[in-house]
Amino acid sequence: MHMNWNFFQKRNLNFPFLFFLVCRRLGAELGKSVVYQETNGETRVEIKESVRGQDIFIIQTIPRDVNTAVMELLIMAYALKTACARNIIGVIPYFPYSKQSKMRKRGSIVCKLLASMLAKAGLTHIITMDLHQKEIQGFFSFPVDNLRASPFLLQYIQEEIPNYRNAVIVAKSPDAAKRAQSYAERLRLGLAVIHGEAQCTELDMDDGRHSPPMVKNATVHPGLELPLMMAKEKPPITVVGDVGGRIAIIVDDIIDDVESFVAAAEILKERGAYKIYVMATHGILSAEAPRLIEESSVDEVGLLLNLEPRFAAVFSGNNKMIQSMLNCLICL
């Protein structure tokens, strides 16, 4: 098994000992490679041993510098392809740019672009976990294994949350209701959905586009006027479901900007929930997210992947971060 060990060690990324543990568990060898940046900022990759005819695994966690990590992954895959590796499998627990999997405003579907770049670089298979949208698998021209994190989080809820039978699973937005319903059914618990969170919309009036386009000094015939689009009002935050006197467990796939989680926790407290947990697969925790969570009504946060060790010291008191990345990667 070949992995970009020097790269991960140099940048002090998520748990460098993980790769040694995976190799020991699987009885595989750690590949020898060097990845570094030259003085002009270009990335250089050197494979230090023969990989001809071998199956190669590249384990790549995504740090804060997403673009650099993606470029290093592409160059390493291409170097292995050039060295005649038989199969190149990318193990990418959190797939970058997965939030940009739909066309919004005048943007682009960047996730599709990245999928094409990975295929061109030489990857023949990807193993990831809880893609932001399952449809992303269709962007690739090679097989993609989208592992589920829910068994690990369900086990944590059952074993670590006291009196979890008195809990209710909460979706912080209608978009997350399907995921929350899956958890609720498996745990045989109630379901609550929070409405009113600011949502990204794709209406023409939201992104400045008009269909048909507006034409100055155009002649409009009587009876052919276009109907006016009603302005969309942001409704107040409401909770559908009973959370009074219960434990509220908010489930989602990604915790990045946490303002919506903080707002959800506040409304749940107002509605009578006496303890609030947040469970997610990927903990990105951008900007001031750790501090905002620490100061919020959230009692405990459970993360499965991608939490950087430097955030562990930020959380104290009632807040606790959990890690089970190794268990997930062993399921290859």
TrEMBL record:
Alphabetized UniProt keyword annotations: Nucleotide biosynthesis, Signal
SMART domains noted in UniProt: Pribosyltran_N
One CC-aspect GO term: cytoplasm
GO MF assignments: ATP binding; magnesium ion binding; ribose phosphate diphosphokinase activity
Domain of life (superkingdom): Eukaryota
Subunit and partners: Binds to PRPS1 and PRPS2.
PANTHER family linked to this entry: PHOSPHORIBOSYL PYROPHOSPHATE SYNTHASE-ASSOCIATED PROTEIN 1 (PTHR10210:SF28), RIBOSE-PHOSPHATE DIPHOSPHOKINASE FAMILY MEMBER (PTHR10210)
Function summary: Seems to play a negative regulatory role in 5-phosphoribose 1-diphosphate synthesis.
Name this protein carries in UniProt: Phosphoribosyl pyrophosphate synthetase associated protein 1
Organism classification: Eukaryota, Metazoa, Chordata, Craniata, Vertebrata
Gene: PRPSAP1
